Amino acid sequence: MSKKSLAILMRARMRPNDPTKFPHISQFPKEIPSNPQENRSRDRILLKSTQETGNSSDFSSSRRVYDVVCETMHSAISASKTGVLDITLNDFQEGYFSLSLEDREKLLLVLAKEYDVNREQVRELVKQYLGLENPASDDKEALASVFYRIERNLRHALKPTYEVLFERLNTHPGGLRFLCILRADLLSILTKENTPSLRTLDSYLKEKLGMWLSPATLELHQITWDDPASLLEKIVAYEAVHPISNLLDLKRRLGIGRRCFGYFHPSIPGEPLIFIEVALMETVAQTIQEVLWDNPPIPENQATCALFYSISSTQPGLAGINLGKFLIKRVITLVKKDMPHVSTFATLSPIPGFMQWLISKLSSQSRFAEDERGTQSNSPSSTFSEKILLPEEEQALMGLSDESSSSSNGMEVLLNLLSVKNCEWATSPRILPVLEPILMRLCARYLLQEKKRGKALDSVANFHLQNGAMVERINWTADRSEKGIHQSGGIMVNYVYRLENIEDYAQSYFESGKIHASPGIHSRL
Amino acid sequence: MSKKSLAILMRARMRPNDPTKFPHISQFPKEIPSNPQENRSRDRILLKSTQETGNSSDFSSSRRVYDVVCETMHSAISASKTGVLDITLNDFQEGYFSLSLEDREKLLLVLAKEYDVNREQVRELVKQYLGLENPASDDKEALASVFYRIERNLRHALKPTYEVLFERLNTHPGGLRFLCILRADLLSILTKENTPSLRTLDSYLKEKLGMWLSPATLELHQITWDDPASLLEKIVAYEAVHPISNLLDLKRRLGIGRRCFGYFHPSIPGEPLIFIEVALMETVAQTIQEVLWDNPPIPENQATCALFYSISSTQPGLAGINLGKFLIKRVITLVKKDMPHVSTFATLSPIPGFMQWLISKLSSQSRFAEDERGTQSNSPSSTFSEKILLPEEEQALMGLSDESSSSSNGMEVLLNLLSVKNCEWATSPRILPVLEPILMRLCARYLLQEKKRGKALDSVANFHLQNGAMVERINWTADRSEKGIHQSGGIMVNYVYRLENIEDYAQSYFESGKIHASPGIHSRL
Where's the Malonyl-CoA decarboxylase N-terminal domain (chains A, B) (predicted)? Predict the structure, then answer.
């Protein structure tokens, strides 16, 4: 066995990430392995008996399972015995997985509300703190001591009680991973019901996870064909940008002219938290096809460009924690050191929000236009209306709509074309050349000018811009996959990282939302 | 190159730990490598010019270096540009190493006092919090929101400003290691001058380090002869219990019948934070000689006992952070899994404080005895006096002192014998048999009954007891090295970890200071 596999085996036991993907663990196992010498807690026995009473779809039974899990949670927080605690934490994790999302929500609400900050204690300390305003003593160091003491106590009192559960799970084998799943649940619950207590629970957990998964604790590892199959399998499962079709495809992505790097955490072994795929190219690639299908693109020593063509994070529960930033910076440093002849670091990125934005823009503007035609006046809606298309684009589109007389303007023609389910336009030699300049111009506008809270509306754009990249070029028919056409009309974008500008660009984007872009893309606007 | 060495190379660059051991870095390097494209900060230029002005022993020059380092520290805390920050943090680290311990103390005082909690802000928030006592609104969730918000703000306001420096260093390459050194300095300063502000700085840093080095972030790795020499060299350098005499000795400790495990952190690569040496034995060893010199002790498949004969931590700056506890627990699990025939987990441990305690006890009691002889009355001192020796021991010792008439009682005889510099008693066939029962009895008393704040007085005893071990047996002439005789009269102790009792024992020791011990050792009292 290789040293590395051994090292991986030597780490803490792991638990599969997504219980829905591993249905066998979303129920209690028939026999929970445990040390026979350890006393089984009452909860444990309760759990087992609950299981044995019959079908978990039975309401009173699932009610009972919920109660037991809730009680286990209580023990996990209040227990002082570290030994029993290990069993309790295992029970809690197993129990949690057996709950429906509805019951999980109930449980998390209990956690958020009943294990909150101890407000009595905070109030008491806060009063003491204010009492220090008129110090009786002139001794400065002595006074400082009192401040230090109360501040420390106040700091501890302000920690919600549920922090204990998070802390204990963090140091428990498999616990960090469990917390990622718990937060993923929390996020999905919050999309439906945004209660302040759950929001606070989430932001507290997010802060903790961000701390525990700080770059100082992450290890960069180059993933190769020599890695264990169990790891490679995860790469296939989690590749979110350009799905891996088969083993050959995977082997190609790990072979000559390519690199794959992952960030690993000691507590979540055998699985990267985030990974990035790199192709070594002669020039910045314009289409994903030339990246994915050429084998290898060019001899490695002729490469001048490292192209990041895919970044996938594996844990939905780590949303909002930017792991990729440090990953990209470290990979750039590493590749640069390894291959000094590589001078350009670029991406070939999807534009996941472009079509959605364009279609919704077109439909709202069509509605405004219709309203205006109806009222023949300056109705209030007109303040929101805008000219999306240039006069020549309007004309070209109307030229396409000869036969279908129902469309009264270019926006409607475009909307109709783009809304057809199987995206016929993308394969039509008549329509394609007409749409190209229009979609490319609108895409440049979408990337450079459409913002939300001062940041790029497109999530991938926002990711790279906050990391210090600039928008270099957009590429027509760069991704002809169904997904590519559907998301962005097949357009892809190259972001470029220039070492000398990364920090300045990140900073100005952070401070003022400034998006740096090449003259070429500016000229499209 | 092996995969592991590659993995180590791939990690962040490291900085030697103890600047006194690596004098070449305790001064600024002539040329600090940096990216020429990055702007050099004013501080950097200042630093360099300071260096070039001449001898650092010159007072005004070292004054100036101090000022620059202090200013760099300020930039490192207040800078918002992450790019410049990397350079600033490097400069701060380099600069800090160039300071004398005296200047470091001054700098740390500035850090503790001028970058403390923002009390104005805390007071403001505290007042707002108290203002919430009479809620105007009956809406519970809305009220909760306000509480959550102020509590979060208060939590952030209560963080001292110096936390920023700690956090930034933690995510900076080499920074975690630097923080360990900084805390080691802090601890050594505190032994001389225990000011509340420095104590608070230390306890805050300790808490942070404990969090960043939580077991979840540590990786257990078996250290073998196949590991890089740079790692093995560290093992030799840091082995604190039984010094490694030469390469052959090291090879034996990593060879058949032995194991060595270390805890590693991704940010401090190539060096364990703590490591443990294990010998596989047929029975629990009574002397360190049989552990260290037999080669190998027995065939591995005949082993029934895993003997932990040495645990060394490498970072003085991590004092008070119990890394060994989790290490022992994980090593036991690992060995058990690997070799099910091993059923006993024991230590052969030094008793570092025994002789020191005994000699100080004997001298204070001799003084009391003398006082009593002088006053011939119940002087106040007599309330502290106690019979250390049993009548038969008194007699046996007086029997030894025939020739030296100066000693008026057994305690004095014993004190004189033990105080002789070269420990003649330990090689004298006449004295040794007399001392054996006396020292063994007193040693059992020292281990089981002498406490400080309710915990075992002996630091190694306290370590194993808090981990859940019991005191099994003490062994006469178990360590005949000079150090062994000097520390504990050559006595060593076996602590035993029984899997089924570890948690209970740890808990009762934690709660009430109860020390579990075998009947054999109890009978010696």
Answer: 115-212
Interface membership of A63 toward B (CB under 8 Å): no
Q: Which residue has the tokens 């940010």?
A: B267
Rounded CA gap, B332 and B500, in Å?
Answer: 12
* Gap between the Cα atoms of A357 and A365, Å rounded: 12
B443: contact with A, CB 8 A cutoff: no
Amino acid identity for residue B135 in this structure: P
Size of interface A-B (CB pairs under 8 A): 159
What beta strand segments (E) does A75-141 contain? none
Q: What is the C-alpha end-to-end distance of chain B, expressed in Å? A: 58
* Location of structure tokens 């099910």: B340
Q: 3-state SS of chain B: helix, strand, coil percent to 5?
A: 55, 10, 35
Residue of A nearest to B140 (CA): A196
Distance between CA atoms of residues B18 and A460, nearest Å: 44
Q: At what angle do helices B175-192 and B101-114 cross, to 10 degrees?
A: 100
Residue B17 tokens, joined: 């730990």
- In angstroms, the CA A395 to CA A373 distance is 19
pTM of this structure: 0.74
Per-residue pLDDT tens over the stretch B472-518: 999 999 998 888 999 999 999 999 998 888 888 988 898 889 999 99
pLDDT in tens, A282-302: 999 998 888 887 666 688 888
- Tell me the C-alpha distance between B97 and B81, whole Å: 24
Contact list, A326 vs chain B (CB under 8 Å): 171
Measure CA A153 to chain center: 36
**Cα–Cα distance for residue pair A485/B309, rounded to 1 Å:** 66
Number of C-beta neighbours around residue A463 at 10 A: 19
Give the alpha-carbon dihedral of A103, A109, A114, A116, to 10 degrees: 140
